[in-house]
């Protein structure tokens, strides 16, 4: 097998994996709607990308390290949007009620 083939395969896989996060980042940024996104899933994903990046560094694989760092940045962005939007949603729900007034029913 050619020595360059594993690097080419890793590069193509990295481009595809990393680019899969871009539409979600754009949608979350434009629409500010992250209600359907799982915070726990992205917490696990971010942790996994940190570990994969460290692994890529330890084995000296630039494609593994670079593409996992890029994916880490994109997935962390989505997680930050999710946390920020959940925080705004919960503050909005609390501030919309007037204190001291009972709800009917």
Notes on the structure:
- There is one protein chain.
- The radius of gyration is 20 Å and the shape is elongated.
- The termini are far apart.
- The chain is mainly alpha-helical and 105 residues long.
- The mean pLDDT is 89.
- Helices cover 76% and strands 0% of the residues.
- The protein has four helices and no strands.
- The chain has helices at 5-19, 22-31, 39-59, 62-95.
User: What's the shape?
Assistant: elongated
Spatial separation of the terminal alpha carbons:
74 Å
Secondary-structure-based class equals mainly alpha
Helix content: over 70%
Question: Helices and strands in order, then pairings?
Answer:
Layout: H1 5-19, H2 22-31, H3 39-59, H4 62-95
Helix pairs in contact: 1-4, 2-4, 3-4
Give a brief outline of the structure.
76% of the residues lie in helices and 0% in strands.
